[in-house]
Amino acid sequence: MTFRIAPLLLLLACTGDKDDTGTVPFDGQFTFVDANNYSYTSAVEISAQEVQLAHEVTFDWSGLTTDLLGHQMDPATDVDLVWVVQFPLLTEDEVKDAIVAETLLQESVGPYIQFDNDPADRTSALLSEFVFPPDNVIDPATDFTDGSGTWLVRATTGPLENRMLGFMRPTETSSNHDFALGSDSATLDFAADLQSLTPYTVDSALPTYTANWAALDTHANGADISLDTLDQLMIARYDGMTLDDLEADFIDVEIIATELYTADVYEAVDYTADLSLATNAAGEAFSGFGADGLWLIALRCTLCTNPAPPFLTVVNVSADGAGG
Questions:
Q1: How confident is the model at residue 319 (pLDDT cuts 50, 70, 90)?
Q2: Rounded to the nearest 10 degrees, how much is the dihedral formed by the CA atoms of 238, 241, 242, 247?
Q3: pTM above 0.85, yes or no
């Protein structure tokens, strides 16, 4: 996936009257604009396997021990769902480009079915075992035809977290009846730029913090951003790490955090949320920025195929409260 990176808008990161040092004091309100956002480039390669037209297929994911992001996994217990999705009018390249740009539209999707790996002990299934409740099915005799479009196979943890992707090609010349989804079925290359953005400097002693993202126009990949897809707020602290370190290991930005808080903001009024809504794994609410460590705030789209946050910014902590 190659993302185009649009020039960042040179807008002010915060509002208010300047003090006598020329700095805008931070009052606890994050008003996110494009200049605060990071940027990233990405590339995905998805392999394709041919299967026989109009024939039953066996799907096997027993070799899926490393996922799309390079994380170790158990194919029997970490794969909750395997999906088969048809895109009748899109080529494989167009599907890849849309995954990268987060521009896959519902109207582009044809029939789609899933195998529910519950109880979690299976690593293979027949196409005839795939359904989509209540009664959606794909019939190879009528659906696996020459020129039927692009078929994408996905293995997910839960309904949304993509662990691996693969293309299936029903062809007239193939006699193959097996489709293997393995650790090398797809690869993702990713590069993040956290140093060209306009960061925030905040006062660690403020009692409350809020965030508003109504002014955002541009996704971190350079495309137009859809604010209504931003459904999770993430706040993270990193001890002993620099921006260079985070860029080098950005794909694991959640895993390597010293402290991590998240909040559901799908129904946030006027695209505004109080940061105290975010909680950590123990259920403890975010109570403020400590003086130590490097902090990030991100807005994520948990329903999107690409795991990269559409918005992410850097927060520096100031003891004297100056900043913006």
A1: low
A2: -80
A3: no
The sheet that has 259-264: what strands, in order across it? Answer: 200-203, 311-318, 294-300, 232-238, 259-264
**Which residues in 158-271 belong to E strands, given as ranges?**
161-171, 178-180, 186-193, 200-203, 210-212, 232-238, 259-264
Considering only CA atoms, which of 232, 249, 236, 245 is closest in space to residue 290?
236
| Helix, strand, coil share (%) of the chain residues, nearest 5 | 15, 35, 55
CATH (residue range 48-184): 2.60.40
> What's the pLDDT at 320?
56
State which H helix or E strand residue 97 sits in. helix 92-101
Q: 77: Cβ–Cβ under 8 A, 6 or more apart, which residues? A: 120, 121
Task: Please state, in angstroms and as integers, the Cα–Cα distance from residue 92 to each residue in 45, 95, 105, 150, 166, following that order.
Answer: 10, 5, 15, 6, 10
Dist CA 236 CA 13 (whole Å): 20
Cβ–Cβ contacts within 10 Å for residue 89, how many?
10
* Helix and strand totals (H; E) in the chain: 3, 18
Which tens digits make up the pLDDT trace of 57-76?
Answer: 999 999 999 999 889 999 99
Q: Which two tokens stand for residue 29?
A: 């309100």
Sorted by where each begins, the domain ranges of the chain are 29-40+194-318, 48-184
Largest CA distance in the chain: 77
What is the DSSP code (8-state) at residue 179? Answer: E
Separation CA 103–CA 4 (nearest Å): 14
